[in-house]
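Render this sequence as a predicted structure.
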Amino acid sequence: MPGCPQRCVCPETNRRRSRGFTLLELLVVMVIIGLLAGLVAPRYFEQVGKSNTKIARAQIVSLGQALDQYRLDVGNYPSTEEGLQALITKPQDATRWSGPYLAKAVPADPWDRPYQYRSPGEHGDYDLFSLGKDGRGGGTGENTTVSSW
């Protein structure tokens, strides 16, 4: 009853109270969600970038081990022309090749670009590296060059 001084438990009054949220309440919730996303998202994506760099380092170590096994069998590292594909497919002049030295195809770096390989390298017997997210080399964070040296 509309004029009741006591708390009403009328079905009609309860229906009016449980219709849903007001526009203002929805806007406040949306602003709070937006603020939380603004705080959490940059930290999340920073972690994704760090993990891609760690993945590239791990893949370079794994490829380096396969290259070392190739050298033990064949006597030298694959040439730049033969490239990392020599770990999967026997080169013509590799008589003692005992591969394949990788279980699967040569992986691309975490940014879907092929790893760069040079033999002989400027920093050792071979250079194996990824140019990072921007593909230019150098840089910082996710854009840094990840290398075997």
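Summary. The mean pLDDT is 84. DSSP finds two helices and three strands in the chain.
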